[in-house]
Write a structure and sequence with these properties.
single chain, 937 residues, mainly alpha, disordered N terminus, PPR_rpt, DYW domain-containing protein, E2_motif, zinc ion binding
Length: 937
């Protein structure tokens, strides 16, 4: 409802009665100008307009400025039209105000038209036009205007210089900036105006802090602004130590800090990482009385950088009246530290105290949903709230929603959000392209890239990096090359990340030579580049090239590895079961990094390596001496015990973890359920599954149901396992059916195996291993016609059965064996040793089990096959080359066969040697005629 004019005038302090006199209206506008109340200025002008009263040349510029600040384009244009036939149209102050208004509203051409029509132009007019060009990103035009201004013999003032230095800074025109500097010196504008001095320093800081420091040192009189500029400059260049030293010098020279000084110094302390210095700065804040919300916010974030969450929280709680920004900062601290429950509790508390959630809050909380058992429900609730407050299409919230749905594997929802967003920018596109690429949706990611170009959104290096990650396989090489060409053509800066992405794309698309050339020719390779390349070779199943590259990196190129490098190489040694090299790497790491025990991700990786390389005792020793553990440490130990068949130890570790206050997560239950499955602890596994849901509130995922199916199927409860598959709330995947078929093999249920196989090949029709699974079950049951039929299908489909291989590490060298293999240099010795072993173990009672020969042949031929399995060859080789009583560790890429399992038991008893075999699913420790799996495998 509009306030009556009479009532409005009565309330105003300057007007005692209703009057149409211009001076009173002018006084009202000036009063609102002092209060910086632009809305009131325009309301007053509207009332004047209705009475047919125009402001004069003193107040009209004030109205136009208000229009510019409020982006009231139509009102401003209407005002311009209303004065076009009056004397005001030629008034220099009014014309300057019009130039300013049009520039602020992005209508540069209109501003230039007014400027060109001016018969008189003073320095203020020129400044307005130069400033307008700067606001509209027409930097070259601004410099051209300055040249014209000089031709008209007008002397620039401090405002002109400040604007021009900003222009030169945006253009990165060092030479032009130096010319402006020279102009300032010649006309006495330097060392007389603090804004010019600070602008000069700010300009040079874009290029070289050293030049800026020379300007700073030549200042006749420094003030807080100049000190702040210089300190901020060092921070922006990442030189936090110099920034802090300058701050100390500022205090020593007796200059007074202001709140801006404290803000930038707190930032420097946070980035420099000196906890003690940060606390001293905090004391100065208290001493100087700068306790505004911005500074408190910065201190909370600083303590979070120090991982001092306690100080962050104490500071947060010490503030009686907190704004939403402070609540958001504390929430961000909890989220960044992975404190999920605390984050949820703080969010609830925030709402209970009546603090209204804003878009920043939603952006902070959304990533948290991926770690919650009911994350999708919570994420959708936040989505609904964003919709309710009209922020659903906000690009920051939209980007976070896309990211959240992607993390929860809801790509369809992410797609809907993206296509509803308005004002998408390069960041929005990057987030969505990355989401699609991570989900292997190559075509869709290419379509979004094309859409970007259509919308004239210029891709940056991050865009290219994201889209390249989707390309693997020779079929995408052509498109990858075209992207590379686009980068070169458009002059997109190739930084280390983009160069790495291009290298990986070529290698993933089977053009290794081009990929390595791209990598080697890049002059600014950093450690991250090397780590990524190592990871790429490893993911492309090229372990030897990975190791060669690692040795080349540390010996020839002299690049010092970091923890990420070590973890990458550890993954390789873990994959190959190369325990000797794993131990060497452990020793190297201890020499290289004295603080190993304090880097949990690395120690956890070593625990995993030792567990998966057959040395569970080393893993236990590392775990037991850790000064601090996290959930990943406990999960690694539970998984290790499970793989080695120590189900009781796994359950005991699980109990200890819970007693020490750690909340098990989804991974914990995967490891624990798998441990129960490998140890035949069916009842315990069922109780664990129930506890996961009822006691810990974790909604079972497909992987948990797969563990449950495996548990029941291995235990002989095949019908119960099938019932789980039929009643679980999601569709089974290939792993589900393989778990059921595994149980069918143990208990020779060919009927159920066939039904499971039919579902399996619908999901993975081109996986030869699936056909082999059923073929083995038929072979074990003597159904040779069915075996032949399956092999014929494999041939017709052009699929090859995966070759079984076993390998053993001797003196850091890997030795591989296949069934019937005679390619090894020691082949004759190996077969002689094997023949000798067979003679002795047969005398002990070993009888070859020909059911494990999966070919329809006579018994004599079957005997030849079974006695030359890869596991037996590796055992014979190990006994020849591993001296003394040292244990023999063998790795097999497939599941160990039943006959080799029995043979290994007899050999361990015969020679009193420990033989460890890691197959595709678990470890088997053969000691004195017994296996750790208790024949439950």
């Amino acid at each position: 409802m509009e306030v009556p004019l009479s009532l409005f005038l009565q309330k105003h302090p300057f007007v005692q009665s209703q009057t149409h006199e211009l001076k009173h209206w002018n006084s009202i506008i000036k009063h609102h100008t002092k209060l910086k109340d632009d809305v009131a200025i325009l309301t007053t002008y509207t009332q004047m307009e209705s009475l047919g009263i125009l402001p004069d040349n003193a107040t009209l510029p004030l109205v136009l400025k208000a229009c510019g600040r409020l982006q009231a384009i139509e009102k401003g244009k209407k005002l311009h039209n209303s004065i076009s036939s009056t004397n005001l149209a030629s008034d220099i102050r009014v014309q300057t105000a019009l130039v300013n208004f049009y520039s602020k509203c992005g209508m540069l051409q209109n501003a230039l038209t007014v400027f060109d029509e001016m018969t008189q132009r003073d320095v203020v007019s020129w400044n307005a036009m130069i400033s307008g060009c700067f606001c509209c990103y027409e930097y070259q035009k601004a410099l051209h205007l300055f040249s014209q201004m000089q031709k008209e013999n007008l002397k620039a003032n401090s405002v002109t210089i400040v604007e021009l230095l900003q222009v030169c800074g945006e253009l990165l025109e060092l030479r032009s900036g130096k010319e402006i500097h020279g102009y300032s010196l010649r006309h006495g504008l330097f060392n007389t105006n603090p804004h010019v001095d600070s602008s000069l320093m700010g300009f040079y800081l874009k290029f070289d802090p050293w030049i800026a420091s020379l300007v700073f040192e030549t200042l006749a009189s420094r003030n807080t602004i100049s000190w702040n500029t210089m300190i901020s400059g060092y921070i922006n260049h990442g030189d936090f130590l110099k920034a802090l030293k300058l701050f100390i010098l500022m205090l020593n020279e007796g200059f007074k800090c202001d709140s801006i000084t404290m803000l930038v110094v707190i930032q420097a302390c946070a980035e420099f990482g000196d906890h003690g210095l940060g606390m001293q700065v905090h004391q100065l804040v208290i001493k100087f009385g700068y306790n505004n919300m911005h500074i408190v916010n910065s201190l909370v974030n600083m303590y979070n950088k120090y991982a001092d969450l306690k100080s962050s929280y104490e500071l947060f709680t010490s503030i009686p009246t907190k704004d939403v920004a402070l609540w958001n900062s504390m929430l961000s601290c909890y989220v960044e530290n992975g404190l999920i429950n605390e984050s949820i509790h703080l969010l609830n508390k925030m709402q209970l105290e009546g603090i209204k959630v804003n878009e920043r809050t939603i952006v902070i909380i959304l990533p948290l949903c991926a770690n919650l058992s009911n994350g999708l429900i919570n994420g959708k609730s936040l989505h609904a709230y964003a919709f309710k407050i009209g922020k659903e299409r906000n690009k920051h919230i939209g980007n976070s929603l896309v990211n959240m749905y992607t993390l929860l594997n809801c790509v369809e929802d992410a797609t809907k959000v993206f296509h509803k967003m308005k004002d998408i920018d390069v960041i929005s596109c990057n987030v969505f392209i990355s989401a699609l690429a991570n989900n292997k949706l190559k075509v869709q990611s290419c379509e979004i890239f094309t859409k970007m170009l259509e919308l004239e959104i210029k891709p940056n290096s991050q865009t290219i990096t994201s889209i390249l990650s989707a390309f693997d396989g020779i079929g995408f090489l052509k498109f990858g090359k075209s992207i590379h060409g686009y980068v070169m053509k458009c002059g997109i800066e190739i930084d280390a990340s983009l160069n790495t992405a291009l290298t990986e794309m070529y290698i993933n698309c089977e053009d290794e030579s081009t990929g390595m050339r791209v990598f080697e020719e890049f002059p600014y390779k950093d450690l991250i580049s090397w780590n990524s390349l190592l990871s790429t070779y490893f993911k492309n199943n090229q372990p030897y090239k990975t190791l060669l590259l690692f040795h080349h990196m540390i010996t020839r190129v002299k690049v010092k590895p970091n923890f990420v490098t070590i973890i990458n190489i550890l993954s390789l040694y873990t994959h190959l079961s190369n325990l000797p090299q794993g131990k060497f790497l452990h020793a190297y790491t201890l020499r290289r990094f004295s603080s190993l025990n304090y880097d949990l991700p690395l120690v956890n990786a070593f625990i995993t390596m030792y567990s998966r390389c057959g040395s569970l005792e080393y893993a236990e020793n590392l775990f037991n001496v850790l000064p601090k553990t996290n959930i990943i440490s406990w999960n690694a130990m539970i998984a290790g015990y499970g793989m080695h068949g120590h189900g009781d130890a796994a359950m005991l570790t699980f109990s200890k973890m819970v007693k020490q206050g750690f909340t098990p997560n989804r991974v914990t239950f995967i490891s624990a359920l798998s441990a129960c499955s490998h140890s035949g602890m069916i009842q315990k596994g069922l109780q664990l599954f129930y506890s996961m849901v009822q006691d810990f509130g974790i909604t079972p995922e497909l992987v948990h149901y797969n563990c449950l199916v495996d548990l029941l199927a291995r235990g002989g409860f095949l019908n119960e396992a099938k019932y789980v598959i039929d009643t679980m709330p999601m569709a089974p995947d290939a792993a589900t059916w393989r778990a059921l078929i595994g149980g069918c093999r143990v208990y020779s249920d060919t009927h159920l195996a066939k039904a499971a196989f039919e579902n399996l090949i619908e999901l993975e029709p081109k996986n030869p291993g699936n056909y082999v699974l059923l073929s083995n079950i038929y072979a074990a049951s003597g159904l040779w016609d069915e075996v032949k039929s399956l092999r014929l299908i494999l041939e017709n489909k052009g699929l090859k059965k995966p070759a079984g291989r076993s390998w053993i590490v001797i003196k850091s060298q890997l030795h591989f064996f296949a069934a019937g293999d005679k390619s090894h240099p020691q082949s004759e010795t190996i077969y002689r040793k094997l023949t000798s072993l067979l003679t002795f173990v047969k005398e002990m009672g070993y009888v070859p089990d020909l059911r494990w020969v999966l070919h329809d042949e006579d018994d004599e031929r079957k005997m030849v096959r079974i006695l030359s399995h890869s596991e037996k060859l590796a055992i014979a080789f190990g006994l020849i080359n591993v001296s003394g009583c040292s244990r023999i560790l063998i790795t097999k890429n497939l599941r160990i066969c039943g006959d080799c399992h029995e043979f290994s038991k007899y050999v361990s008893k015969l020679l009193r040697r420990t033989i460890i075999i890691r197959d595709a699913t678990r470890f088997h420790h053969f000691v004195d005629g017994l296996c750790s799996c208790k024949d439950y495998w």
